[in-house]
């Protein structure tokens, strides 16, 4: 059985759905083929027993320009986290964030527990100037690792080791800060301009909103693709022909479908979810803020947060849901015990009675943003085959959606299809 469409998109993650949306609003007949049972790719949420468990700890930033252009933020009912971080040091917890948004945190910022004031001001100046620089200026600057960039900006070692390294390790999913300065600059810009949030219905609400905007029948789930060739896609259910094909899968699948496509190194992470007992107000004083260990090597947890402090909808009946993320793939009983013990140190609370409700090992959670980083990888591979995904732009929701739009625009140009106003 053969079906024909103007464009066939392989993969219903953010990149594929963003491409489908852009093509559909220009009147293009699109079919999106997804091997899984629902949309989202790596942005998925399990909704079980009144809990919302995202596939790995993920946040959305409303300041992402591409996502803000496409998504209906009001409909997502975004729930905000505190824009900052609490770092546990040998001298106790220290709260650091933008003093304009959290004036009462200024006392901690002045403290010497996380380095001198001059070094903190230099970091603030670097972040502020970066957020105000044109994108072309940021991309034209010589690339280097994030660690070298921060030290070159005058950030002192104490601040770097006690706050910035543990915080950025959870963003980059690597603790050497070997990630490109260009990606660091994008991350800092998003934090200066926006506040991290989650949708009330879980992170999967984002791809679901994109999918719901498409014409009925556009997305076909349970449809694994076996091979891709110019103008043709083969599935277990038959053949699809098209004027153009966009491969918008995860990087490993894209590389298998498109031999010769470069495969960036991947970053792995494991996220543990617990239902905490006791008074939730005793955990980070009821504040929805990210907690990291600035003492280094005290345990495996790279970051943790009480999700229900920000979004009570993540656990019904007033329960307290805590996430904790660890670099790499670690889901053994011994590793879970180490996570639980580390959480007890971080929160200063007993965790023996906490119920483990989910473990999510996520292989290739993010493509590595290594030096030198070319933020705009080509999406047109020739012969009517295109590729989209965060590995073509940046390892973020913003990057995935931008790549989807770029692929769609390239298809429109290639096919010379009429644009509907």
Tell me the fraction of residues in β-strands, as a range: 25-35%
Chain-averaged pLDDT: 94
Give the low-confidence spans: none
Strands, total number: 19
Class from helix and strand fractions? alpha/beta
Distance between the termini: 34 Å
| Rg result | 22 Å
Major sheet attributes:
8 strands, mixed
Number of helices: 14
Overall outline: globular
The helix content, as a percent range, equals: 25-40%
Structural account:
- The protein has helices at residues 14-24, 65-70, 73-76, 106-110, 117-132, 135-140, 146-152, 157-172, 181-193, 205-212, 251-257, 307-310, 333-347, 397-415; strands at residues 2-10, 30-33, 45-48, 51-54, 78-80, 84-89, 92-97, 197-199, 219-220, 225-229, 232-235, 238-247, 266-276, 290-293, 301-306, 320-327, 355-367, 380-382, 385-387.
- It is an alpha/beta fold.
- Strands 1, 2, 9, 10, 11, 12, 18 and 19 form an eight-stranded mixed β-sheet that branches.
- A hairpin with a 2-residue loop joins strand 11 and strand 12 (238-247).
- The longest helix is centred in the C-terminal third of the chain and has 19 residues, at 397-415.
- It is globular and about 65 Å long.
- The two termini are 34 Å apart.
- The mean pLDDT is 94.
